[in-house]
Amino acid sequence: MTETPSIVLPRTTGPVKAAADCAHSTEQLPPEAQADGVALAATTDPTRTSLLLKNIGGLTAIIMPDAGFTSRLIAAPAGNPTDLASRAALIAVNNSGGLAGVLDIPVFMPKNQVIVVPPQWGVCVLSDSLKEFASARYLQDKSTTAQYFLSKALADQVLGKNSIARTQPTLIRCAKSTADVVKGKPTLSDIEQYVEILAPGSPCRNSYQALLHSDRDAADQLATAVLSELQATPRLKPNSDLVITTARS
User: Fold this and answer.
1) What is the pLDDT of residue 47?
2) pLDDT digits (tens, 9 = 90+) for 79-90
3) CA distance 144 to 182
4) Residue 169 burial (CB < 10 Å; 0-12/13-18/19+)?
5) What residues form DSSP beta bridges with 136?
6) pLDDT on residue 105
7) Per residue in 160-205, pLDDT tens?
8) Ramachandran category for residue 97: left, alpha or beta (phi over 0 → left; psi -120 to 50 → alpha)
9) Do 53 and 41 meet the contact criterion of CB atoms below 8 Å apart?
10) Which whole-number Å values give the CA distances from 135 to 7, 83, 84, 121, 147, in the listed order?
11) How many Å apart are CA 38 and CA 63, to the nearest integer?
12) What does the DSSP assignment read for the chain?
């Protein structure tokens, strides 16, 4: 008796869709490093509609959608720093109002689509159309970099003895002061700018000294510790031009 061969049905697959997040952005692309001081590790998914950008450089990048708004940005928390000081520093930068002075950010750009990406932080770029590669623009901004460095160094020193709720207003105040000094006195060196921000009588000093129960000696010691940490950070660079990057191979 001849056996009837079994019929193997082909596997059915659903329609290909654009990526909804960067969970499948595992295909390595060449690192993005067209702006001085910025290096972004880039990965994408098979549809090329996602682009995960992680800042592996030393300076802060500001990332926004492409000029045609074919892509949008969402958070990519999986690979971001989890320590309290880094998170508090970024909150301070985002609430300082410093982005208002970045000339290359279009005035019509939605605020939630301008993402500050300090070193070791990342962002997910998505295209909602299979016909468009995920793409974004970025620049290196001197003021924002300085804000993050100073806020992080200050947070490292004060969060151990103060709650985040009590500390955050001081970090925001110092981030605002950093933007004012960096933009208002551009001829000073990095360290000279940091010294002025932390100096007695400055808005930042008045705020962090209040955290220390108005103890001047403790405030002096804090400023010395913060400056010591800042001396180990990368030197600031002038703002870069706006650069575009896409999920191309």
Assistant:
1) 95
2) 899 999 999 999
3) 9
4) middle
5) 65, 245
6) 84
7) 889 999 999 999 999 999 999 999 999 999 999 999 999 999 999 9
8) left
9) yes
10) 45, 29, 31, 18, 27
11) 11
12) -PPPPPP-PPPP-PPP---SSSTT--EEEEEE--STT--EEEEE-TTS-EEEEEE-SSS-EEEEE-TT--EEEEE-GGGS--SHHHHHHHHHHHTTTGGGG-TTS-TTS-GGG-EEE-TT-EEEEEESSTTS--EEEEEE-HHHHHHHHHHHHHHHHHTTTS-HHHHHHHHHHHHHHHHHHHHH-TTS-HHHHHHHHHSTTSHHHHHHHHHTTT-HHHHHHHHHHHHHHHTTSPPP-PPPPPEEEE---
Report pLDDT digits (tens) over 112-152.
999 999 999 999 999 999 999 999 999 999 999 999 999 99
Q: What are phi and psi of 104, to 5 degrees?
A: -80, 0
pLDDT, mean over the chain: 92
Cβ(186)–Cβ(197) under 8 Å?
A: no
The model's pTM is 0.91
Beta bridge partners of 54: 41, 122
| pLDDT of 13 | 55
Show the tokens assigned to 57: 């450089």
What is the C-alpha separation between 46 and 55, in angstroms, rounded?
A: 22
Is residue 190 within 8 Å of residue 145, measured between CB atoms? no
Per the CB < 8 A criterion, the answer to whether 198 and 204 are in contact is yes
Of the candidates 62, 63, 203, the one whose C-alpha atom is nearest the C-alpha of residue 125 is 63
